[in-house]
Amino acid sequence: MCDDAVTADQGERIVRNEPATPVAVTLPATAGASAQARRIVGEAVAAWGVAPDVAEDAALVVTEMVSNAVDHAAGPVELSVSRTQAGVRIEVSDSSPTRPTPRPIEVDSARGRGLIIIAALSREWGTTPTATGKTVWAELA
């Protein structure tokens, strides 16, 4: 089944012309954005037949990426997920030009491990400056 466009709940628009077509959405910078992103990535990787362990890693990676964007930037968050020859690529764009940097882990804190998780689960990750902020991306095999 090929839908040209699917509108999901919460107003995001998912465009699909075929199963491996990239998915791109704009999410509000709210507390629920990470859950929305997890659902969107989960649906995409399921449609592409991605291995369950890669799908689980993608869910964790996108959760951390979107959480960081919501916590450290203003305005909406752009999410893109695409199928690659090697696996999955996730991109999260926000309006802050500040590049993320890993912090020393504070044992008492429940926060501050996002970039460590992204690095551990991704084959490669990085940041690309944009005209309006930055894009943080991760590739999973």
How would you describe this protein?
This protein is of the alpha+beta class and 141 residues long. The protein has a single domain (19-140), classed as Histidine kinase-like ATPase, C-terminal domain (Heat Shock Protein 90, 2-Layer Sandwich). 32% of the residues lie in helices and 28% in strands. The strands form 2 sheets. The protein has a 5-stranded antiparallel sheet with strand order 3-4-5-7-6. It has a two-stranded antiparallel sheet with strand order 1-2. Helix 1 runs antiparallel to helix 2 (52-72) and helix 2 packs antiparallel against helix 3 (114-121). Residues 1-18 have low confidence and may be disordered.
Write a short abstract of this structure:
The protein is an alpha+beta fold. It is 32% helix and 28% strand. The chain has helices at residues 33-48, 52-72, 114-121, and strands at residues 5-7, 13-15, 23-27, 77-83, 88-94, 124-130, 133-140.
